[in-house]
Every structure is written in C-alpha cells, then in structure tokens.
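Lab notebook page, bench 4
Experiment: in silico fold of construct C2
Operator: M.H.
Input chain length: 130 residues
Purpose: comparison with the prior construct
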Amino acid sequence: MKDVAAYNLDLKGLHALNKQTQEDSRQAISHFQDAIAHEPSYAQAHAMIAGTYNFLGSSGQMLPKIAYELVHKHADFALQLDPTIAEGHIAKAAAYLLYEWKWERRAKHWKNRYYLIQQPPITYWHTITK
C-alpha cells in the first residue's frame, strides 16, 4: 500500500465497521471501496469488504445467500492480490463456518490465519474461535 489517501479511507472504514450497525457497515463498505478506487491493488480494503459482508450476513442485516457470495468474491480477490492477508482467510473461514458449514475448508483458512497473525484483527471474530 502506497497511497496515504487509501490508507486513511481504510481507517475510516474500520471506524465505521466497529460501530456494528447496518448503516455504519454500509458506510464502511463505501470507505473501503473509495480506498480501492485510490489504490486498486489494496488487498486489505478488499478483505475488509468481505469481512463487513460477513458481519451483515451473520447478523441478519442482509440476506445470507447474497452476503456470503460477496464475502467469497471479495475475499478471493484479496487473497489473489496478497495470499498472506490474514483478514481474507478470516473472512473465508467465517463464511465456511457460519453459512456453508464446510468444516474442513474453514479449518484450512483458519489455520492460514493463525500462521499469519496470532490473534484476530477484529474483536468480534474472537467469538468464532471459542
């Protein structure tokens, strides 16, 4: 990531996402998309869009079928840009756990996340690991 404006938009997105309301989550997606407009190869922003759709789908604020299709789309793109982005693996693991119930695939992505970072970057993901 080289663009400071993209990074600032990413931070705004994280701030909105952490409020965990539907309106703020939609605002977070908008900030992440603006960050991508500044820097299309910004894997973190793509992964955070996936994470936001995970939240919307798992909390009943969006139809799960649509939300989790978007989770996979954005997480896959983030991982294509940067296979070491832990948030992309977290998004995939959560989708497999919460919606698709594909335990083996979830374990693969969760293991990848574990080797990349020692703790989840977003506190609400911690409940998934228990």
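Observations: The chain has a mean pLDDT of 81. The first helix runs from residue 4 to 17.
Next step: discuss at group meeting.
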